[in-house]
Amino acid sequence: MLKHCNDSNVAVVLIHEIYGINDHMKYATQMITAQGYDVYCPNLLNREAFHYNGEKETYQYCRNEIGFEQAKQFSATLKKKYETVVFWGYSVGATVAWLCSEYDGIGAAAIGYYGSRIRDYTDLRPKMSVRLLFAEQEASVDVHQLTERLSCTSGVNIEMGEGAHGFANPFSRFYHPESEKRALDWSFKFIETIWTGEK
Asked: Residue ranges of the Dienelactone hydrolase domain (predicted)?
């Protein structure tokens, strides 16, 4: 597990993508802790990170191994210590954050970056505030149709990022710095709103 504590009242549960705790997750941890929040990135694979060039093998492994139950149980321990717990996930991690949002009392908010598999769970009704950031270009889903359907869900706010899946990952060939900056600004303002609203 990656973790960094600033003695904050806010804990961010960072949920990794299918590759595990890799350079992107280390980078994201630094970005979030620089804002003063405590960050916990549990290793939901229970193994070393996969390399980007083994996507098919990685996806099959993660489909069987990564589940929201682990993230949900982990957040329960944080709720005893923190005023505010926020789920923040990338790709499959965004889908896990979305699934966690259905449960009352385990967190205050969920943020998901390009969680294309959310398409399988559009009937979910969140019990916390949710911010979803999608890429305008998604190979696996009609993102405009998906966001139109999700926009009818109470408590869900959606933003579109210019570029493709992975636009906020500086280690991806699809990295789009301007989209990442806008998405991070939007995410941090959201956390600040949630936190100050709870105090």
From this structure: 10-193
Q: Is 119 exposed, middle or buried (0-12, 13-18, 19+ CB in 10 A)?
A: middle
Tell me the sheet residues that pair with 13. Answer: 40, 87
Contact 137, 116 (CB under 8 A): no
The amino acid occupying position 101 is S
Residue 101 has, within 13 A of its CA and on its CB side, a CA count of 30
Inform me whether the pLDDT recorded for 102 exceeds 60: yes
Residue 180 has pLDDT above 90, yes or no: yes
CB 33 within 8 A of CB 4: yes
Contacts of 155 (CB under 8 A, 6+ apart): 126, 128, 129, 130
| Gyration radius of the chain's alpha carbons | 15
pTM over cut 0.85? yes
